[in-house]
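As promised in the previous annual report, we have extended the structural survey to additional targets. Below is the entry for NSS family neurotransmitter:Na+ symporter.
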Amino acid sequence: MKRERWGSKSIFILAAIGSAVGLGNAWRFPGQAYANGGGAFFIPYFVALLTAGLPLLIMELAIGKKYQSGAPTAFRKMGKKKGFEWIGWWPLATSFVIVSYYAIIMAWTFNYLWHSLSMAWSSGSEDFFYGEVLQLTESPGVLGGFNVPILIGLVLTWIFVWYCIRNGVQSVGKIVKWTVPVPIALLVILGIRALTLPGAMEGINYYLSPNWSKLLDINVWAAAYGQIFFSLSVLFGIMIAYSSFLPEDADVPANGIIIAFSNSIISFIAGFAVFGTLGFLQHSTGILIEDMTVAGPGLAFVTYPAAMAELPGGIWVQVIFSLTFFLMLLTLGIDSAFSIVEGIVTGLVDKFGWNKRKTVTAVCIAGLAGGLIFATNAGLYWLDIVDHWVNDYNLIIIGIVECIVVGWIYGANKLRDYFNSTSNVKFGKWWEIMIKYVTPLSLLVINVLYLVDNLKEAYDGYDMQYLIIGGWGVVLVTIIVGFIFTVLKGKEDTQAS
Ligand code: TRP
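The corresponding structure token record, generated without further manual editing, is:
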């Protein structure tokens, strides 16, 4: 059977940017920069991009293109043993977990689009989010039943995701022409509005004024590497799947550079929109930025909406900018979400030879089912725990394993020769040094730091039992699911016997 192909190379680049650019750029990067030295953070961030993010991105794109298959089959061919498939299945099991909660965030966003019409949070955005929208219970152990509006949003999200990828890369190609430029345009609009508000410059000061002493803190470096990995969508098998639909002659290094830098530039712009707005909120309410939530769900669903309710010009202006913001989040997130599903589907279809469309439908239904726990009234707690653990452990360990397999077992020099042979941008020996030494060592250091942290004190003060289930338990389950899919018989095993 002939492999699917991207409509053009620029569509591939758009789709890859769409996957990388997501909530991580809008609500993770600005907060990280602020907390880790402001303007000084750009140094570790840039170092992390060059020593780990870009090398890994190029590596994954090269693997996908070379083996013309999703992550599991690609690693199996690379290692020439069935067991190597696991290095592809584990990330896919992990990304399944991620998409199940990423979809919930989009479900909240759908709800907020609706609430924007009446600026329903204007009497208090914090109570509105935790109390009315989430109806958050007092502990992760009290699920409190399903939250119906969130459930509706979740179903909508999955229908949307299904629709975007139902015909594989052909339909993805059509969608990303919209879902990549639209949020960027909306972000720029929000940024300009923010910068022209009173107080904006004080906000920008918080964002950018450098605190150089932070550069001596190893945790700041760890944060920079963590941000790069999460934001570029590497180590989840997605980039391997996406590049597996590229033709032989595609230029991997050039594409990788475009994708990586676009992603960082968009993060940087998002910082202006966010901190300009926070500066305005400080100016109009007198609450100091250091007392506000400047990252994560708290930023998007509490702090930012509060600022929208203060906008001058009357309710309609407020409604329009709120809609703009949530529409931006939605379009920002959707292509990251469906890229994950596409990565999983590609892995399954390549191994088992299943019908693509049916596989898409099945994975979407499974993702919806898997996300139900997050649609309960304790959903936010579980999301918080699961997110923390899979990003701290799975992501990092997968990175180390990939570097060992490619750098030491397969041979970094072989892969570099391969991707350089069809590229105008030749990567030097430094790329090999990164993949063999620098990237895996930096990952290892971060991992140890995280481990020490998590063992020293309970994350966010949750009871140990919940951290064992939602943290270590989920990590363990993804490892086991990876093994199960590895040992299952695929189409090649049956042909061979
Ligand atoms: N990069 C995405 C963002 O910035 C989130 C993300 C992390 C992701 N890992 C991924 C998206 C894997 C797709 C695939 O929000």
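The longest helix spans residues 379-420. The chain has a mean pLDDT of 94. These points will be discussed at the next consortium meeting with the crystallography subgroup.
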